[in-house]
Amino acid sequence: MVFDLIRLKSNLEKSISIDCDYKIDEPFINSTEIMNPFCIHVNGFITKSTLEGFDIQIQVDGVMELPCSITLKPVSVPFSIEIEGNLDELLEEIEENHKKIENSIDLLPIIWENILMEIPMKVASPDAYSTKVEGNGWKFVTEEEEEINPALAKLKDLL
Question: Above 90 in pLDDT, residue 104?
C-alpha cells in the first residue's frame, strides 16, 4: 500500500486521495489470533503539513474472523478505525524501521498496527451458550456465576 508523494512535495497537488481495498494475508496474520485472510477498505487522504512533513487522515473498515473463546468456531468481528496524524510521528510510535520518506510512503505498517489494537480479548459466537457446558466432573462457569471456595470465604471478610 505504497503512495507516491512527489506531486505533494512539488506543490502540484494539495492532497492525495485514498480509496482502495487491500487484502491482509498470511504473513501478517500468522502471529495473531486472526483465523483467515481478510480484506480492508481504506478511505481518506494525505496532505502536506510543513516543509518536510505529511499528515494523513484515513478510515479503515473491515471484518476479521477470530476464534470463539468457548467453542473455537470462527466469529466475524467488524471493525472501523480512524487514523489521523503526522506520518513521521505515527511511524515512530509503532517503532517501524523505516527509511526517511523520500518520494513514497507505505501506509500498511501504520494500518496493521491499528488493526492489531482492535482485536478484542474475548469473542463469543451467538450459539456458544447453547452448546453443552457441563460434563462428568466439570462445568463452565461464567464471571457472574463464579463460586467462592468455602475455605477461602473468610478472607473476603478481611477486605
Answer: no
Return the C-alpha cell found at 37: 485472510
Between CA 11 and CA 14 the distance in angstroms is 7
Write out the three cell numbers for 55: 499528515
DSSP state string for 45-76: EEEE-SSS-EEEEEEEEEEEEEE-TTT--EEE
Contact 68, 124 (CB under 8 A): yes
Say what the pTM is. 0.74
- Tens-place pLDDT, residues 50-59: 767 888 999 9
Instruction: Return d(Cα 7, Cα 48) in angstroms, integer.
Output: 10
Distance in angstroms (rounded) separating the CA atoms of residues 62 and 71: 23
Nearest of 43, 70, 66 to residue 116 by alpha carbon: 66
* Closest alpha carbon to 118 in 52, 19, 56, 38: 38
H/E run at residue 17 = strand 15-24
